[in-house]
């Protein structure tokens, strides 16, 4: 898969006692070039197949949310993953780590090995001989016998106050461990579906900051702040018009919407066997493709390769890169929000939206609430073209979204002419647009079951987070219950304990894939 993430650097280093060089790919943090004196933890992926893009995307996402420190990520592009090559690959990893320490600003004592898939044998080799190259271990359990105790040993040196091992598995662990081991259990997960969540567990356990998600935007909801920014909009608008345009960045898959008078960037990933087989596949359309495409597509590919789900065509809808990050943030609020009257901007959440738009010289009332237009773009422009050029089964189409994207999924499933029959609603902002999702003439419109299947998820930590509460995310359970009361098709709700608004996303997406696309595989 071609990665389109910034800050990715390929490199080659001489292999010890071998003619060929070791080829690696390094992802540097967003602040690396500016923060010249800062040193960073290093994460080494032992098996980066269908994982590297996810690792980079999600590590950067949790760092941007201030929940963890920024990290350097490296993979061995031609890793030897056969068990008989474990010793050789372990030696390669030690060389790669030593090279990273010389080439980049790696913090001393903060090198972690991410152990998953085919990388387990070489990781065990390094662990059992107590390699000094590795300081910490982020482990994905592969088998029932692969318990946290298998990765515990007296440390060769002090590991500081942080855990030395972060272990994630699907089976419960009856034994308690001391502070050197952090354990996370995912009872709902599949072996392949748990991998990205395991990485995020390791990030938070080893380098978490304790930052309260969204706390930095809460002051924008104060009436005085919103009023001041509203009054400053003309000045802000003039300043932004005189500012330099964002640097151009190639968008290869532009799709022009005449209905919305704007461009979208469309991402597509076909199953590996699609060119060999003449058949139609189910498809998953994911929102926020600009920020989550690698994560969603790699999770689907990895789970399908493991036989956990059907082969699916993955489709992402994003904002062209050259429009910049600010446009991405504002457009998702515009396009994903249901119709909004003045009442939507009188409370704290509405004032936060008003302040955010005012910071960019825009009046929120002129831009907010364009979900009906976005729906028409999908139904009338995008899907007809995708159905024409891709091997899609029109009876098995799914749409998935998180946060404000989850709010749009709630809007989409309430539309009588929606082409989708499966809906993955992750941590939706139920309170957006004056609680539109909970209104009888809105998200709870009756008579739309028609065999639709809906899975609603949220993170356990979102129940107690002030910003998430303001956005109405804890109301997700009530929303799902009301859908069941309406007999609105098959509805399932899960609260995924131990995850924040940011970290729950890959876990929720993998769960939705296993619930919505596993039945055909199991019944085959």
UniProtKB/TrEMBL annotation:
Alphabetically ordered keywords of this record: Hydrolase
**Transmembrane segments in this chain: where?**
none
Question: Molecular function (GO) terms listed?
Answer: hydrolase activity, acting on ester bonds
The protein's matches in Gene3D superfamilies, at most eight in alphabetical order, are given as: alpha/beta hydrolase
Q: Which residues, by range, are in coiled-coil regions? A: none
UniProt family annotation: Belongs to the esterase D family.
- The name this protein goes by in its record: Alpha/beta hydrolase
Annotated organism of origin:
Solimonas terrae
